[in-house]
Every structure is written in C-alpha cells, then in structure tokens.
Design goal:
- By secondary structure, this protein is α/β, with parallel strands linked by helices.
- It contains 18 helices and 14 strands.
- The strands form three sheets. A six-stranded parallel β-sheet has the order 3-2-1-4-5-6, sandwiched between helices. The protein has a six-stranded parallel β-sheet with strand order 11-10-9-12-13-14, sandwiched between helices.
- Helix 10 packs parallel to helix 13.
- The protein is elongated.
- The structure holds nicotinamide-adenine-dinucleotide (NAD) and uridine-5'-diphosphate-glucuronic acid (UGA).
- Nicotinamide-adenine-dinucleotide (NAD) binds next to helix 6.
Length: 462
C-alpha cells in the first residue's frame, strides 16, 4: 500500500518544451513532497535544461529551476526508466497543425502524442494515471484510452485532461497564481479517484475554489474555447483598427471606451500587427476542423474568420508600409524591431514578424533585424528565405542607414530608446510603423519621423 502511495508521488512529464519545463518546475517548487521528472527525446533540449542556459527564456524561470533541479526536479532522456518509476504521467508533447493527408492545414497532428501512448504501454509495468497537458481535440482522451487499454499486460490506465492556460513571457507568474486549474476525468469511480490525485497536487498552492473538476470532454473543449475567445477579441479589435484608419477614430480610444464596460473588460483589446504564437491559430483551426467534422458549417466559418482576419491584419500592415513609402520598398532597408511573437519570450513560432518579414522581402526590401531575445530563432525561421537579411545585436546599429523601422514586438525597452540618435542615423525621409502602438508618436513626429500607428491617424511631414 505504501509503495502504491509513493508511486503517485513520482510525477513524469513527457515533453520538455515551453509548457513541460515551466509547469513541472512550478510543481516541483510548490510540492516538495513530490519528485518530478521531465523527459524528452531531444537530447540537446534536455542537456540545456540541465545546464546554466535553459532552452527557453522566461522571466523567473531560472530561479525556480536552480532551486529545485537535482532536489525534486530532474531532466532526462531515459524515458523507459521514468515511465516505469512514475505513477502519474503528464503528456506535454507538441500537437501542431497537420501538414499532410486528411485534415491538412486544420486538424491537429497527433503523431507525437500517440507515440507517447505507445511508449507508456511498452515500458509500464503497473497501472498509471496519464494526464493530457498538451492541447488536444475534444474526445482525444477516448483515443488515448483505447490505445493504452490495448496493452496485453492487464494494466489499467486512467486518462485525464489537465490543459495548460499559461502564456509565454508570464509563464512563471501564471503558474504560481493561475486564474483556474482544470482537471477533467471520466466520470467513473476510478476516473474520479485519479482526478482527486491530480487535484491534490495543485491544492499545494492553488486555492480550492480555483480548481475545477469537470468531465474530460468539457476540459478538452474548454482549452480550445479559451484560446479561440482570446484570439477572437484580438481579431475583433484589429478589425476595428481598419475602420478607425478610414474614419479618423483612434483604436486606442475606442478600445479603452469599450473595455471600461465591466461586462467586456480591458484585456486582449490591444490592436496591433495580429496575434502570433504557437497556439492561437492552431487551436482555432483545430476547433474549425471539429465543427466541420460534426457538420456545423456556420460554427466552423464563424471561428475560421478569426484566423482570416488575423492574416488580413498582417497583410494590411505591409500594404500600409508600401503605400506610404511611395508605393515601393524595393531596394530600401527596413529595420524590424522585434521578431518574437510577443514581449518577454524568445519564441518566434507563428510570429507576425515571419509573415511581415517575408512579404517585405518579396517586395524586394532588405531587412535589418533586431530582437533582445529571439535573434537565434529568427535566423532559423528565415533560414531558407530568399532576400537580403542582416541580424543585429544592437538596435542602434540595426536602424543605421535604414529607410524605415517596423516595430513588431511589444518589448518594453523599445519605448526607452534614444530615437533622436536613431533618426539621425537613418536615411531620409525616415518612417516608423508602430505595429504595437507603444511609442510616443508625438515625440517621434517632433524629432522628424513620419509616424504610422495601427488604427489611428498617421503623423506625416510629407
Ligand atoms: P514544444 O514543441 O516546445 O515542446 C514539445 C516537446 O515534446 C519537444 O521538446 C519534443 O521534443 C517533445 N516530444 C515530442 N514527441 C515526443 C515523444 N514521443 N517523447 C518524448 N518527447 C517528445 O511545445 P510546447 O509549446 O511546450 O507545447 C506543448 C503542448 O502544450 C501543445 O499541445 C500546446 O498546444 C500546448 N500549450 C502550449 C502553450 C505554450 O505557451 N507554448 C501553452 C498552453 C498549452
Ligand atoms: C496564449 C493564451 O494567452 C494562454 O492562456 C494559452 O495557454 C496559450 O496561448 C497557449 O495555449 O499556448 P501566448 O500565446 O503565450 O498565450 O501569449 P498571449 O499573451 O496570449 O499572446 C498571443 C498573441 O496575441 C501575441 O502575439 C500577442 O502579442 C497578441 N496580443 C495579445 C495582441 O495582439 N493583443 C492583445 O491585446 C493581446
């Protein structure tokens, strides 16, 4: 019995990525009574987790990893041994959009996720609780259960859903103080028993009223819906930014006025170049695919529009640059300030900067790129892209001799630069396209810049 109890104090997470690493570090930090092992097939990534230079940049993460690593937090590539030892297995592998076959471009690619199920069957020699941490389509737990129950060792696997709601750049504080934790389980006796064990982990630091126990399908669907609704707000305000530009209304004023309605609220109403990140687009497309699968055409088209509007916002930003730089950017140098999909992360997955950068290159512009944390990932994203691209460690050098700056990421430090110095070093007339509406536009205009915000009147000397 004690052995049985101990095994549920051994937690494994398969997948040491942006979610697996931080979530497990937070659990290790908050639950000294548990041992947490994070395993991955990627040897380089695991080596980085075990080094002084973690594989991802996330404020506050270094401190909690340093504190727990080697005590009750371990990173390994020995997946078989970790599966054997642990009673609770979180699965946090990537679930990207499928790029091939049926459902290509919409459905989730579940091959990595299924491989973990097969590894669990192969190496487990006692019962386990398997927890979906990855974002998955509704009813994925059913498929996972079927695969696991096909084992010939007579083992029982309870499959739960515990989706992650943290955002990059604020992962540590989101994990330490979540709005809610969702634990979905099959409504059977053993399912509910397993659910209690997962709830008990979070109860070490999350107030009980913030831990929601639901059925497994509601849990899976809630994750997709939360992301779809957050992205929908951004697409909504971005659509309004286009109307503002035609009518001299100011999208920041509209956003503030609308967001002050208590029922609407102020968050996720910041207009810009469009949302990026590895999940919003993929999760909405996943929802669209599910709706199509169930014959819900109107519902599918409704959500699809959130993604289409986001693509439109990327294109609109580029068109605006071209139009205002005398209808051509060919041969002109444009400095991209920021390549990460948002501030405080080095992650560039689905970053608007990729699409905007590529469109500008197609127009034969030359790109100078600066980002405080995402330069290496930017290089990978644009590796096979034709055109003239240079990367800079210093923003002032990046802007030198360029015709325009396109600000694409909301890094706070961008607001603090010496723009007089930058202006003096640029080709004239100098343009600044503030894709995040975060600079002091009046000040820039006074310095001599032609300033183009998103969703409000430009300030031009021309
Ligand atoms: P990621 O690509 O950073 O990490 C996934 C890791 O899984 C990789 O290191 C990969 O090597 C590993 N992996 C793949 N197959 C494996 C296998 N068979 N065995 C062992 N390891 C394997 O992805 P991520 O950003 O951490 O996202 C993981 C999941 O979490 C996705 O479903 C995503 O939608 C969801 N999610 C992500 C975020 C986020 O902010 N990134 C937030 C909430 C939810
Ligand atoms: C998002 C969700 O916020 C998390 O709850 C979720 O767990 C995660 O997706 C996921 O499932 O991966 P993340 O993508 O890390 O988190 O970052 P967000 O802060 O949501 O930003 C997403 C994108 O929207 C960024 O490009 C950001 O710049 C943009 N954004 C955000 C806006 O353009 N306007 C806003 O008002 C807010």
């Amino acid at each position: 019995m004690d052995q049985e109890k101990d095994k549920y104090r051994e937690i494994l997470c398969i997948g040491a990525g942006y979610v697996g690493g931080p979530t497990m570090a937070a659990i290790a930090d908050k639950c000294p009574g548990y041992n947490v092992t994070v395993a991955d097939i990627d040897e380089k990534r695991i080596a980085a987790w075990n080094s002084d230079t973690l594989p991802i940049y996330e404020p506050g993460l270094d401190a909690i990893v340093k504190k727990t690593r080697g005590h009750n937090l371990f990173f390994t590539t020995d997946i078989p041994a970790a599966i054997k030892k642990c009673g609770i297995i979180f699965v946090s592998v990537n679930t990207p959009t499928k790029t091939f076959g049926d459902g290509a471009g919409k459905a989730a690619d579940l091959q990595y996720w299924e491989k973990t199920a097969r590894a669990i069957i192969e190496y487990a020699d006692d019962d386990k609780i398997v927890v979906e941490k990855s974002t998955l389509p509704v009813r994925a737990a059913e498929a996972m259960s079927r695969i696991l129950q096909s084992n010939t060792k007579g083992l029982n696997f309870e499959v739960l859903s515990n989706p992650e709601f943290m955002a990059e750049g604020s992962a540590v504080s989101d994990l330490e103080n979540p709005d809610r934790v969702l634990v979905g389980a099959m409504q059977t006796r053993s399912g509910i028993e397993a659910q209690k064990k997962i709830v008990a982990i979070y109860a070490n630091w999350v107030p009980k009223k913030k831990i929601l126990s639901t059925n497994v399908w509601s849990s899976e669907l809630s994750k997709l819906v939360a992301n779809a609704m957050l992205a929908q707000r951004i697409s909504s305000i971005n659509s309004i930014s286009a109307i503002c530009e035609k009518t001299d209304a100011d999208v920041n004023e509209v956003s503030k006025a609308v967001g002050m309605d208590n029922r609407i609220g102020p968050k996720f109403l910041k207009a810009g170049v469009g949302f990026g990140g590895s999940c919003f687009k993929k999760d909405i497309l996943n929802l669209v695919y599910l709706c199509d699968h169930y014959g819900l055409d109107e519902v599918a088209r409704y959500w699809e529009q959130v993604v289409l509007l986001n693509d439109y916002q990327n294109r609109r930003f580029v068109k605006n640059i071209i139009l205002n730089m005398f209808n051509t950017v060919a041969g002109k140098k444009i400095a991209l300030f920021g390549f990460a999909f948002k501030a405080d992360t080095g992650d560039t997955r689905e970053s608007p900067a990729i699409y905007i950068g590529k469109m500008l290159l197609e127009e034969r512009a030359e790109l100078n790129i600066f980002d405080p944390k995402a330069l290496e990932n930017a290089k990978k994203e644009l590796k096979d892209t034709e055109g003239k691209i240079e990367y800079f460690e210093d923003p002032y050098e990046c802007a030198e001799n360029t015709h325009a700056i396109a600000l694409l990421t909301d890094w706070k430090e961008f607001a603090d630069y010496d723009y007089k110095r930058i202006f003096d070093s640029m080709a004239k007339p100098a343009f600044i396209f503030d894709g995040r509406n975060m600079l002091d536009h009046k000040k820039l205009f006074k310095i001599g810049f032609n300033v183009f915000p998103v969703g409000s009147e430009p300030m031009k000397h021309l």
